[in-house]
Write a structure and sequence with these properties.
Blueprint (H helix, E strand, L loop, with lengths): L2 E4 L3 E5 L10 E2 L3 E5 L2 E7 L5 E7 L2 E7 L6 H13 L4 H4 L2 E6 L2 E6 L2 E6 L2 E6 L3 H12 L10 H12 L8
Antiparallel strand pairs: 1-2, 2-3, 4-5, 5-6, 6-7, 8-9, 9-10, 10-11
């Protein structure tokens, strides 16, 4: 789902990427730098809008039409995403933040920092490191997050096996 607002014309505020958009984007074709991530908005061959955000060597894109969502369908999907064990929003820990020209993302036990220098990834090694990373980098003081560590490690092993740091 993308979020469009009317403020001096239509603006794309979020495209379902979390904090990847650093500021509103006018609903028009173009390119913007949301330090450190380049963002582009264009049209597809079938007249949909496509927003693309580059993350180091990878890119995410999202196609949408600029029309209101079906409220009942949206409510059903939001409930499923927030509660169903098959939802990636239930299965994964994801925290994102922009800080001084850097984009920080914690997915499970992998911390990614993207900046002008490129992209750096590292795995967290313990429940204590998870709690301190949340507190120090993301300003979230939740010591009880340590209780999630066994599930985070198990999910990481199921997805990546012995691979040191996932590439996607």
């Amino acid at each position: 789902m993308c979020l469009l607002v009317q403020c001096d014309g239509p603006k794309l505020v979020d495209a379902g990427f979390g904090s990847w958009l650093g500021a509103p984007v006018p609903l028009e074709q173009g390119q913007w730098l949301h330090d450190p991530l380049p963002v582009s908005l264009g049209r597809t061959d079938d007249a949909m809008w496509r927003v693309s955000v580059s993350l180091a060597t990878a890119a995410m894109s999202y196609d949408f039409v600029a029309q209101p969502a079906d409220e009942d369908q949206l409510s059903t999907l939001c409930h499923w995403q927030a509660t169903d064990p098959a939802s990636v929003f239930v299965q994964n820990l994801t925290v994102q933040r922009r800080l001084a020209g850097n984009y920080l993302m914690l997915r499970g036990k992998v911390l990614t920092v993207v900046g002008a220098h490129g992209e750096e990834r590292r795995e967290l090694g313990s429940a204590g490191e998870l709690v301190s990373t949340l507190r120090e980098l993301f300003l979230i003081d939740v010591p009880e997050a340590a209780d999630l560590w066994p599930a985070i490690e198990a999910r990481h092993e199921r997805l990546f096996g012995p691979q040191a740091a996932p590439t996607t």
